[in-house]
Amino acid sequence: MAGAPRPGADRNRGRRRGVKIPATVVTGFLGAGKTTLIRHILQNAQGRRLALVINEFGDVGVDGELVKGCNDAACPEEDIVELANGCICCTVADDFLPTMQKLLDRPNPPEHIIIETSGLALPKPLVKAFQWPDIRTRATVDGVIALIDADAVAAGRFATDEAALAAARAADPNLDHDSPLEELFEDQLASADMVVLNKADLVSPEALARVEADIAGEIRPGVRIVRAAHGAVDVGALLGIVAAAEDDLDARPSHHDSEPDHDHDDFTSFVASGGEVADVEALIAGLGEVIRAHDILRIKGLIAVEGKPMRLVTQAVGPRIQSYFDRNWNAGEPRRTALVVIGQTGLDEGAIREALAALIG
Fold this sequence. Notes:
alpha/beta; 7-stranded parallel sheet; globular
């Protein structure tokens, strides 16, 4: 038919000479809602063909499991790539760059790439990776989206204790007073092209206004702050920022700019596994007690519940615990409970494992 596009023209439009495939980096602290936001993007893709690169801190692919199949047409399972060999900002050359090259080399490459960093990742090294010669001419960072847990920040979860700081200053005036959590939080904001104040529905208007004012003092001029609940942000606003972030790295300062390498010695994680759980309410209550007793930053995982055909997803940020059933267990899939525990270095892993074993078997 006259005027009709030739077969394959649409599939290859991302590979036209001079056209770069946009990539959106989704960053944010542990439990801010990155996976929820990405599920929202996939469910509202509006015909875009997406690829998803997920980086997790820990050994269980919880985040990958939560997004697989939520929109097969927009992002089929083969276009979801999980990087589980360490934090993405520390394994750029070994893991991320080869993954990007494989995506870009496909005969039918994605139209947009979504990259979910772990909650402990520094976004700047990842953005800088787009300057790599094999990537630079074919892909660009459309934007860095920083998710903020408005409820946690309003409660001062990432604020340094003033009394402890005063005591530290008195003991050693040369001490670096910034905690690892604060530095990470500030680095994510400094790289952002958009900040999403997620879980805004859990915060009073007055507290939300205070959080927004504090965030405004940490971000670059022109960066938008968007309020959201459950990651529900218009996809048109999230995708299509056209920031080309890799070209203005100097405008995105980091506490780690002077460091040759970056590691996560300040954080630790491990996986606790168990069988089927009989009493979900008792489990949730018990998890809360373990979190409070050991000052755990984050617990996330999949729980097998006796008599229930569906998996129970559980995610905890500090004392706040959320859970929901997401899908049926697949035929032949082991009905096992697996929880990733994340905290600052010094966690009593043995005591935590013992406490969790009493809850999940």
